[in-house]
Amino acid sequence: MKVSYNWLKEYFDLDVAPKVLAEKIERTAVEVDEVTRAADGLKKIIVGHTLDVQPHPNSDHLNICQVDVGEDEPIQIVCGAPNVAKDQDVIVAMHGARIKDNVKIKRSKMRGEQSNGMICALQEIGFDEKVVPKEYVNGIYVFPEDSHVKPGEPVYSYLGMDDDVIDTSVTPNRGDLFSMDGNAYEIGAIYDKVPAMNHRALETTDDSTDIKALLKIQIDAKEDVQAYQMGIVQHVNIVPSPFWLQVRLMTAGVRPINNVVDVTNYIMLKYGQPLHAFDYDKLTEKEIHVGYSPAKTKFVTLDGEERELRATDLMIKDGERNIAMAGVMGGLDTEITPETKTVVIESAIFDPIKIRKTARYHVLHSEASMRFERGVNPATVTAALEEALELTAQFGHGKAVVNHLSAVDPEPKEVQVKLDLTRINHVLGTDLSVQDVTNIMRRLQFSTKVSGESFTITVPARRWDIHIPADILEEIARLYGYDNLPSTLPTGATTIGRLTTSQQVIRGARHILQGSGLNQAMSYGLTTAEKAKMFMLQSSEETKLAFPMSQDHAILRMNLISGLLDDVAYNVARKVSNVALYEQGRVFYRTADVDRPNEVEHIAGAITGSLATKSWYQKEVPVDFYQLKGIVSLLLHDLNFKETVSFVANKKRPEMHPGRTADIFLGDQVIGFMGQVHPQIEKQFKIPETYVFELNLQAILEAPKNIQHYEPISKYPAITRDVALLIDKNITNTDIVAALRSKSSHHLETIQLFDVYEGKHIPEHKKSVAYTLTYRDKHNTLTEDEVNKEFDQAIEALKNTFEVEIR
């Protein structure tokens, strides 16, 4: 909220510099974004009075103005504003002036005519366009008659530009600070001052008009309305607000509209109580209902947008016709216009959750909805309405109906909290006395009863955020001063900082993948329903967000690969052909009967193009299944599992290529998969041939592992044997290696496949494979006879198992 320093001084005498005050607010209450003074950086900007305005002889849109600037002679200024006219009080930037963005104004000739300054719009001297009155958005600003400006005087004080504005960031629990009254109470407590609340009461008259004959109210959604009152002002003239009120609103960041709307905004800023004004003559039924409308009902709000309502949107209705979204925004059909003669003003409190959901769903976060969401003071609902009725009658030269309708009376409830001094000093680490605590409560204007060292504190309704002793403790700490709380160093035995086993494994996995040429990526944990269900390692129910920011981020992910493919697509679209990424993060699995999903650590990778960049000494080789398998094997090998890791072909994963995909087993448990993305999925993501893997890192971390150990390199020579086999196509390398090892002793060190051939001279449904078998004894030199015997046993086992033919 933008807090005006000059407005604060109307509550009590302030002898504190604005920036010092802002620093105190930030240390004690809420965060302060900035302190600004609109006049800073501006120079030689004064009031001028146009004595004469004549068309420029050499231009069809410029005018030559003679302007009184308080000097002996008027000055000539060439102005192109469409609304410049004779006998206006305007803003003039003199020769040498500095306006917005430090632009310097100089004398110059425009189409041959001398111009000795510039007649300015509000935007040109630093006002945001959204606060400029609409009639002056596309032209210069003209001071109204009640501004009482004098030519030659600086404009800063007239326009409130010499006011210091403290922009606070109000937290959800401190909705009371969304009003000037609330800020006055808070600052009064900080500096031990009692604010003077200048609340105007509705003047009584002899008018006998019965408001019940003019209007009726029916509350259909009683559980969602905590207070609802309405008043009427008759014979109103819709005119601009008094100049002081316009300046006050612009300083607070609100655009002046007319005297009725400006009064409702002023009361909202002052009390924190949002109001809404309806044109009484546009109400056909004259019977206000607060309730709901059928889903998909169309409704046009004040901003001119047509919105489709939900069945849960709380509405204000004239009979069955919707006229406002309760607590959010009014309807276009009943807005205040220059023809309005009778005004109905609404003052209410609605269920904050209902208002928040409506504002969020329709992306319509108004000043009113922000206050309703955080809470409104029930003690001032009636006072705010009465002052609004009084000011509307005064500024519009109308007559307020003395009595008002109250369909739901506000119920301000005071809260009693009990606390003792021992507890206060124990929690805060202080040595406060009974008198110290009593003084703090007095500054907060909380009434206190003391019995020995026990306190019974009565909290007024304006502080609806306080309910329990912990809240009072926070108030005491704030007012006492966080800087005054004693500080102590933590005590306890020191320990050597180190990573846990899980952290070591995760960090090691990252190092291996980065060493293999992959870069780390971080994807969103939220995705679409379609992408969430892709590449899943196990079946799961999707977990939806109740209020997603967008449909692209509505479901918790159940895989990492789809996010990596989005990253690959992003790079490919920008002409990056070689992309190698990995991600380590959590996926979310949920069973049908549980609301909260399980979070499971996964690690995944995606590669397209080549891992090696083309150069003068090597060619670019596209990544393939075996290159990716080598990376995954390296990753798993270093973990030294007790059980064996194996790769088994799988044609049933719908998002993967049926001939280039393998499940990864650890013993009998599937811990992941790898292979090429299915061409149809590649087309969907608009990416070229891409290879991916995903592993259940949680299962890897929990799997039993051998204690890492190292074996010395043998000093004895190795003996190799090559063998070529003719086998059926359906026999895999894994099968061959397993058979060879089953009939070999511990001397067989490695089995290396070095050739695979199919084609000419090979029978149909057959293939030729060739292996190198390496034998070594770690303690002695092997003899030819020992190797031949072991080799023959292995070959015989192959023949018996697979009926292979030795070539």
From TrEMBL:
- Give the signal sequence positions: none
Which Gene Ontology BP annotations are present? phenylalanyl-tRNA aminoacylation
InterPro entries assigned to the protein according to its UniProt record, in alphabetical order: aa-tRNA-synth_II/BPL/LPL, B3/B4_tRNA-bd, DNA-bd_dom_put_sf, Fdx_antiC-bd, Fdx_antiC-bd_sf, NA-bd_OB-fold, Phe-tRNA-ligase_IIc_bsu, Phe-tRNA-ligase_IIc_bsu_bact
On the tree of life, the source organism's domain of life is Bacteria
**Residue ranges constituting the TRNA-binding domain according to the UniProt record:** 39-156
GO molecular function terms listed in the Swiss-Prot or TrEMBL record:
ATP binding; catalytic activity, acting on a protein; magnesium ion binding; phenylalanine-tRNA ligase activity; transferase activity; tRNA binding
Q: Which cofactor does it need?
A: Mg(2+)
Pfam families assigned to the protein according to its UniProt record, in alphabetical order: B3_4, B5, FDX-ACB, tRNA_bind, tRNA_synthFbeta
List of residues binding Mg(2+) = 465, 471, 474-475
- Please indicate if the UniProt record lists Glycoprotein as a keyword: no
Instruction: Give a Gene Ontology cellular component term annotated to this protein.
Output: phenylalanine-tRNA ligase complex
Question: What PROSITE patterns does the annotation carry?
Answer: B5 (PS51483), FDX_ACB (PS51447), TRBD (PS50886)
UniProt keywords, alphabetically: Aminoacyl-tRNA synthetase, ATP-binding, Cytoplasm, Ligase, Magnesium, Metal-binding, Nucleotide-binding, Protein biosynthesis, RNA-binding, tRNA-binding
Give EC number(s), comma-separated.
Answer: 6.1.1.20
Q: Where is the FDX-ACB domain?
A: 714-807
Cofactor note as given: Binds 2 magnesium ions per tetramer.
Q: Which NCBIfam families match?
A: pheT_bact, YtpR
Protein name, entry field:
Phenylalanine--tRNA ligase beta subunit
Q: Which organism is it from?
A: Pediococcus cellicola
Q: Which gene encodes it?
A: pheT
